[in-house]
Amino acid sequence: MNIFDMLREDLKQEINYLIRKASTSRKSVHEKGIKIKINGSLRMVNVGVKKILPPLDVVGSFLVTFEEVLLPKISKADNKLGPDKKAERVIKELERELKSVKANLRIVIEDIEASNEELKSSNEEMQSTNEEMQSTNEELETSKEELQSLNEELITVNTEFQNKNEELTTINDDMKNLLDSIKIPTIFLDNNLNIKRFTSHATKVINLIPSDLGRPINHIATNLKYENLLSDADEVLSTLVFKEIELQTKEGIWYQMRIFPYRTTNNIIDGVVLTFTEINNLKAASDEINILNNKLGVALEYVDNILDTVRDSLLILDEELKVVSANRSFYKLFNTSNGEVEGKYIYELDKNWNKKKLRDLLEDIIPKRNFFEDFELDYNLASKENKKLLLNARQILKGEEGTKLILLAIQEV
What we know:
Beta-Lactamase; five-stranded antiparallel beta sheet
């Protein structure tokens, strides 16, 4: 409620003056001995106004206090005062009220002048704003034309976007049919290892349903005899190095799991991709190959044992006439070891083997499929003992790949 609506007429002017004075001076102001009429009788009050300062919550408010005081008693001496004295007292009272009115009027005038200044400033701002509004209006007209042009461009872009969307839908359908046709279970995970997408064949490996999209991969039951799926996926996501692991399902089917980072067209890592390639037949073939390799190893050992028991010296050379292997009789006859022979050219073993005719015969065996028998070689030992050797050579094939080698048989006469 407004205090000026509640005040008596005798107090409105005084309270207004005190509030203005307290607002400008930020100090407590007081006025004493204000006379008011209540029910036809005269009363006197002291009024104080104080502006409330921090830290109180009601900062900016004014505290107005009213203190009623007793009217001064008229003494006998006052009654004996002449008209001049009484007039002087009335004049002083009127001067006090006039002083209050002048002060209040001065404050009002200052407020009016400040308001006029503010109005002038506001008027100038309004004129400036009006000019700005006109300029803005012109800019809006220009913007309207630009918007119309942009709208036309937007329509064109929207048409292109619709075409691209149709192409994207077609590509998405093609990709889905491609993934379903290759029958390789594939699962796409995001950076938090939550399921983004999976192919229909992935349900053979992991029990997935359409509502599993967005769920963590470790919350889904799998048919794999493997417990490190989550840690492997997390490792690939952190190191960006793909992994290949052979694992088996509970039904006994073997798969090769490949985990590699999911890269966007902008080369941003957005998760990992898990693929499961069935290698059941490959695994069975690998087991058979291992069995055959074991048998082959036994057979080779059997052949080596036979060759070591043959009395004739044997050398096996490759296409470049490098020694691949030799039997025990060769090492014994020439008093050497495999470390001194294997990997060396035959004509580097010693000067006895560096004979042009022998070298020409050996070099023609593989290209021309030739062979020779009973080639006589005079061999001079370090002990100055001479030996006559008969050499026989022909081409042999090694393994399924058909590696071409030369078998050189050496017989001491």
